[in-house]
Amino acid sequence: MSKQFDVIVIGGGPGGYIAAIRAAQLGFNTACIDEWKNSKGGPAPGGTCTNVGCIPSKALLQSSEHFEQAGHSFADHGISLSNLSMDVAKMLGRKDTVVKQNNDGILYLFKKNKVSFFHGRGSFAKAVEGGYEIKVSGTTEDTLVGKHIIVATGSNARALPGAAFDEDKILSNDGALRIPAVPKKLGVIGSGVIGLEMGSVWRRLGAEVTVLEALPTFLGAVDEQIAKEALKIFTKQGLKIELGVKIAEVKTDGEGVAVNYVDAKGGSQILSVDKLIVSIGRVPNTIGLNPEAVGLKLDERGAIVVDDDCKTNLPNVWAVGDVVRGPMLAHKAEEEGVAVAERIAGQHGHVNFNTVPWVIYTHPEIAWVGQTEQQLKAAGRAYKAGSFPFLANGRARALGDTTGLVKFLADAKTDEILGVHIIGPYASELIAESVVAMEFKASAEDIARICHAHPSLSEATKEAALAVDKRTLNF
Ligand code: FAD
Ligand code: NAI
User: Fold this and answer.
1) Is position 147 within any domain?
2) Is residue 164 domain-resident?
3) Which of 66, 119, 452, 454 is catalytic?
4) For the domain that residue 411 is a member of, what is the CATH number?
5) CA distance 425 to 44
6) Is the dihedral of CA 178, 16, 308, 361 positive or negative?
7) Which residues form the domain of 244?
8) Distance 192 CA to ligand 2 centre (A)
9) Contacts from 253-260 at CB under 8 Å and sequence distance 24+?
């Protein structure tokens, strides 16, 4: 006998679990199926984000940042330490605890919101009268029928051709988050978000890190001025970043990994490292979903084809998060999940892709929302720019963290904020104000006229908004 639901969500990452909770809040009888297992084989909902993504990477970034500060900045504050050491096993253990707290939190939220959770793999069996039959297999064996199906099956790391992940020497994000001892030499392929975040973690702990990037420009999606600043800072910190390379071959032996590549000048090079992180993007995941059984359409990249409302080609089948088009970000997945649940309820759920913030959690952090200067130039949009350095911000000086700047881009005529770009301390938190401002179509002057607490880093945002009109007060 199959179990009947109004809504079945396949995948319990940020897209799926949030969609399930919102659907349940709206009064739907909701199930969520997720197959992720913890080390004991138990359920570990939260997807890539909770298990091998956002959360564990930020835990390690925090630990390694403490270590770096203790070694480099504490002395300026009059704090002296001797025999500073890093217990990598303890750091990894703490990270695992943080992950488990999040897994348990989601299981609690399912109970609280009366979402029925099934631990196993969900796959389409067939279309039935008034819905779809979904098979659950693995830890739990079940047959469910749902009127609406939300697919949120996420993404997997892309491997280099001929260099499959073994998670010992050639590491995806998964292996990169559990290297048991600091490698002497670490190679990273791809200077994107994962490469920079994970490269930073292991560099701070003492690894010699070399990053090989195919593109000739560094962080192409980031505002050019900010990307240039970032490259300077990361290089000074000790990350070796080589741009414009072509990877020819990756070979492992008992010792480590050898990467043969052609450098930007056309010379053949070999990089020998103990471990290699490959972070060259991610691919949508539909493994085991059995989309063919119901004719669910995928594109040539393997992503589920959806319209702006996350509707697939099938009636009452929706898809959200990394498995569909758009940026692969947890908060984008969540917003889509909420919007879909609300659409199912006949409401007007909405996701504004123009105001999805981006953050790279390096030190300093990089955060932005809206358009970059190069995008505005390419679109021929008349704009004004204003920026303010943290060097001139009192709180940043007190923190001893004055690297970076806030930059505003506003429409030349209307002064509407078109983009805000930050590199500096707590950029991840500071960007929220600009997201709100853009969501409300604020002008740079609106921000410039708002009272910001003193001394605070947020004053740099106000000053950058003032800079648009060339009237900074503190610079
Ligand atoms: P996922 O989180 O991938 O979840 C999909 C879930 O579905 C998984 O649990 C999977 O096991 C399950 N599943 C798949 N197929 C089936 C099936 N057939 N049946 C049952 N279950 C199934 N984003 C940010 O916004 N901020 C960050 O700081 C950040 N850091 C990151 C760091 C790293 C190292 C990585 C790799 C990613 C990071 N991301 C970050 C990206 C973020 O993790 C993803 O965008 C987000 O997890 C996507 O959510 P999702 O729900 O679409 O998919
Ligand atoms: P990415 O898309 O950020 O970066 C991949 C980089 O690899 C690019 O610079 C690309 O040019 C380069 N590349 C591609 N093929 C290459 C090759 N053959 N040789 C050398 N370089 C090559 O992808 P990444 O870092 O793997 O992360 C995947 C996604 O996960 C991100 O796009 C992001 O959406 C998400 N993520 C988000 C984080 C955050 O929000 N802070 C943190 C980590 C990941």
Assistant:
1) yes
2) no
3) 454
4) 3.30.390.30
5) 32
6) negative
7) 170-280
8) 4
9) 256/169, 256/185, 257/169, 257/170, 257/187, 259/187, 259/189, 259/212
For residue 77, indicate whether it is catalytic. Answer: no
pLDDT tens, residue by residue, 107-136:
999 999 999 999 999 999 999 999 999 999
Does the model's pTM come out above 0.85?
yes
Quote the tokens at residue 443: 């002008």
Beta-bridged to residue 210, according to DSSP, are: 187, 240
Q: Which ligand is nearest the CA of 60, by number? A: 1
pLDDT score for 436: 98
Q: Each residue of 358-405: pLDDT tens digit? A: 999 999 999 999 999 999 999 999 999 999 999 999 999 999 999 999
CATH number where 63 lies: 3.50.50.60
Question: Residues 6 or more apart from 60 whose CB is under 8 A from it?
Answer: 91, 92, 95, 177, 201
DSSP letters, 34-71, are: E--B-TTS-B--SHHHHHHSHHHHHHHHHHHHHHHHHH
- In three-state form (DSSP H/G/I as H, E/B as E, the rest C), the secondary structure along 328-361 is CCHHHHHHHHHHHHHHHCCCCCCCCHHHCCEEEC
Nearest CA to ligand 1 atom 28: 54
Give yes or no: residues 115 and 52 share one domain: yes
